[in-house]
């Protein structure tokens, strides 16, 4: 069974904890940098991080980009986000297939 962890502010991660995911609430996104190695060594299949946390650990999360696991997903915080996760998925899809399928051009 795959394991999923969530790192972010308390309000954002507690809902995931209620769904059975392992939650790592941080009071300050900078705490995630120290927390990251401990979470990563638990061999999660998926690690979800809020946008604020991703900004703090982007270099660490990108190191996982060439590995099969963990997949690092960016989620918006409970208070609303800047769609960083959507932009990242858009770039990955564009790199994989060569076109921007999310583009508004050509839609009518």
How would you describe what is shown here?
- There is one protein chain.
- The protein has 108 residues and is an alpha/beta fold.
- It has helices spanning 10-18, 31-40, 51-63, 84-97; strands at 4-8, 22-25, 46-50, 71-75.
- It has a four-stranded parallel sheet, sandwiched between helices.
- The longest helix has 14 residues, at 84-97.
- The protein starts with a strand and ends in an 11-residue tail after the last helix.
Strand order in the largest sheet: 2-1-3-4
Query: How is the biggest beta sheet arranged?
Result: 4 strands, parallel
Please indicate the percent range of residues in DSSP E strands (runs of 2 or more): 15-25%
**Uncertain residue segments:** none
Number of strands: 4
Rounded Rg: 15 Å
**Overall mean confidence score, pLDDT:** 86
Shape, please? globular
The oligomerization state is single chain
The count of helical stretches stands at 4
Alpha-beta classification: alpha/beta
Element order, helices and strands? EHEHEHEH
Indicate the percent of residues in helices: 40-55%
The first-to-last residue Cα distance is 43 Å
